[in-house]
């Protein structure tokens, strides 16, 4: 949409003429991807690399402001008249006008499972701005290690694709752990890149085929010069817990990490009373995170990942004592924006919700 058109449609006069609907409601009659301010996209291609995954190529509207390699975003879909969002890593390089994400089936994850089963070309997807600091700088290290497990491959692939797009792969080792070849996303692409680029060495470990979990001997054998490499690490919590101390014991070079779940999230248990100020509702803080307490009280706060990554559930806490569920740290806060999903009441709390 041209800036002058967007400015005109965003004027108070046009907004008043559109009432009680919004300008976006009328734009949707032309193309549901159109919006004055909201990033939205249309699925332009669907590929299923494995039986439990789907790779989406998304054409965003002009409200999308781009991303840096390794970042993530929220994808939103409307299910039964309610918008649900989930956090996914962006795999496409920053210079690509299209957005690529790969979604794996995730237990009872409503958005993930819906997309794996029902994603199709032309589907409308709601987008958030890109977030995250799992990003390399403008200069590429002379020697780098990319190490991932499971769906943790996605942000690491985003980093690699950025380096390849800039023709800056000099000496990169990519070690990925997957259960089997059938379960591994991006297996064919990585094999092709390994054969094509002399500066890239790909090591794939299939744990169900006897490849073994990550340990000191395996890491030393695959990356004997780890002390000289800057590292990007991503995977499930158990993998991260095992890999990080091994890497730090062998290298003083920077270690960048991304994790899809809040590390060592304590059992969500609080205490005290929670007052939801704007709704004039009080609830016991004992029944989970502040997000869970709000939902239990009948409120519908915004949320995305529910694990402390996306910040969609951030809300102002007027005052109170809270506990960080990742670190167990207790602190008094006043007029502070907090992620509700990773904080619980540690005393009386007033939330502006």
UniProtKB/TrEMBL annotation:
Coiled coil: none annotated. Its cofactor is FAD. The keyword Flavoprotein applies. It comes from the Bacteria. Keywords: 2Fe-2S, FAD, Flavoprotein, Iron, Iron-sulfur, Metal-binding, Oxidoreductase. Residues 36-137 form the FAD-binding FR-type domain. Gene3D superfamilies: 3.10.20.30, Nucleotide-binding domain of ferredoxin-NADP reductase (FNR) module (3.40.50.80), Translation factors (2.40.30.10). One of its GO terms (molecular function) is 2 iron, 2 sulfur cluster binding. InterPro entries: 2Fe-2S_ferredoxin-like_sf (IPR036010), 2Fe-2S_ferredoxin-type (IPR001041), Beta-grasp_dom_sf (IPR012675), FAD-bd_FR_type (IPR017927), FNR_nucleotide-bd (IPR039261), MRET (IPR050415), OxRdtase_FAD/NAD-bd (IPR001433), Riboflavin_synthase-like_b-brl (IPR017938). Residues 272-353 form the 2Fe-2S ferredoxin-type domain. In the N-terminal section; belongs to the FAD-binding oxidoreductase type 6 family. This is Oxidoreductase.
